[in-house]
Amino acid sequence: MNNYCNAYFKVDMNEVIRNYNRVKAHIGPDTEILPVLKGNCYGYGLIPMAKLYTQHCGARILANAAVCEAVQLRRAGIDCSIVVIGGIPQHLLPAVVEFDLQCPLFDAVTARRLNDLAASAGKKVKVHIKIETGMNRLGVRPGQPLDELLNLVKSLDNLEVTGVYTHFATSTADFYDPFALEQFQRFQQGVAQLREAGFDPAYIHCCNSAALTWFREAREFSTHVRSCTSILGHMSMEDGREPIGLVEPCEIGAYITNVHDIQPGESVGYSRAFIADRPMTVATLSFGFADGFYPGWMRQQGPVLVSGTRTRLLGCCMDQSFADVTGIPCQIGQKVLLVGRDGNEQITTWEIEQFCENTFEYLYGTIGNRVERIYSWV
Ligand SMILES: *Cc1c(COP(=O)(O)O)cnc(C)c1O
């Protein structure tokens, strides 16, 4: 540890590789993984995870949601195919061309603009036609709107249709969720239209982590699955069903900076947010909401491991937090775990997700740079 940080987020890189291979085994040899690196790779760290996927997992194409993250990867020397799967503000289309990014296409304005930019640069831009099937976020509806777009694209020499995709709105809800089945139908219709129009996209993708878990038909119809959650070893189904055998690869910890006793009626923190009803021992911890931790985690007294014993947080300030360490031997300077295993006790990400009633993307995607990322290869 050398970044002078008060808290850390440690990733077991070998476990991520094993998860990648577990997902691969689950989806079979005919479908590839298109790793999604959005939101700083859900807090895991953009560039190190991109390097892991390309150099150690065999990924040949990566997905970002935002152009800025794709550009960061390019500047870090990542030269494989990169597709931006999120909506792109028009002013960033020149960057798509400059940095050789693939991008979504679902509207005529963007098609013409991209084509002009590519022509000026003497390049062809690779686009993935995004089919609107029910998420109503980005996409062109199958039928006449798609036909019109495809006709336009045929007339634009500097666009190359390299992919087609859609995104499920409800695949996390249940295996064979009926709305996901409907969306898949519409997607198949869209892909059939592309083929009838003479396009033969190399990338066909619709499954996220939840869908790749259960939606065999959609997987087999596709060339790629888009995954972040599963390859990071986290739960994608809302009910925690996880048939792949994934293992969580992260540990989140901080340090005790003070230990003190308080009497009944004494309070802890701003606004006297916590008031002791009995003699207690309180530890002050070296992290706070300015580190990007989800506030409800601390404020609603989430779990924490101190000396291998499970206890609770008592509150949180901007840079410091409190834990109840009554009866737990501990001292200034020692480590505490928000997530991870210490002795026989473990706090899993899934437990925190249940506790916060939110998925880990929300809990980890906001963890900031002040929390040192440690990439462990042991
Ligand atoms: C976030 C996202 C994914 C990845 O989802 P996971 O469930 O984390 O695997 C895939 N596709 C799109 C369009 C996304 O927005």
Ligand catalogue: pyridoxal-5'-phosphate
Q: Which sheet architecture does the biggest sheet show?
A: 6 strands, antiparallel, barrel
Spatial order of strands in the largest sheet: 10-13-16-15-14-17
CATH architecture of the largest domain: Alpha-Beta Barrel
Q: In DSSP terms, counting alpha (H) and pi (I) runs of 4 or more, how many helices?
A: 13
Give the structure's gist in a few sentences:
The protein is of the alpha/beta class. The chain has 2 domains: 13-227, TIM Barrel (Alpha-Beta Barrel), CATH 3.20.20; 250-347, Lyase, Ornithine Decarboxylase, Chain A, domain 1 (Beta Barrel), CATH 2.40.37. The chain has helices at 13-27, 39-42, 46-56, 67-75, 93-98, 108-121, 144-154, 178-196, 209-214, 216-221, 295-299, 349-356, 360-364, and strands at residues 7-12, 32-35, 61-64, 81-84, 103-105, 125-130, 159-165, 203-205, 224-227, 250-262, 267-268, 274-275, 280-285, 303-306, 309-316, 321-324, 335-342, 345-347, 371-376.
Can you tell me about this structure?
With 378 residues, the protein is of the alpha/beta class. The protein folds into 2 domains: 13-227, Alpha-Beta Barrel (TIM Barrel); 250-347, Lyase, Ornithine Decarboxylase, Chain A, domain 1, CATH 2.40.37.10. Helix content is 31%, strand content 26%. It is built from 13 helices and 19 strands. The model has no long low-confidence stretch (mean pLDDT 97). Residues 36, 38, 85, 167, 208-210, 226-230, 236 line the site of pyridoxal-5'-phosphate.
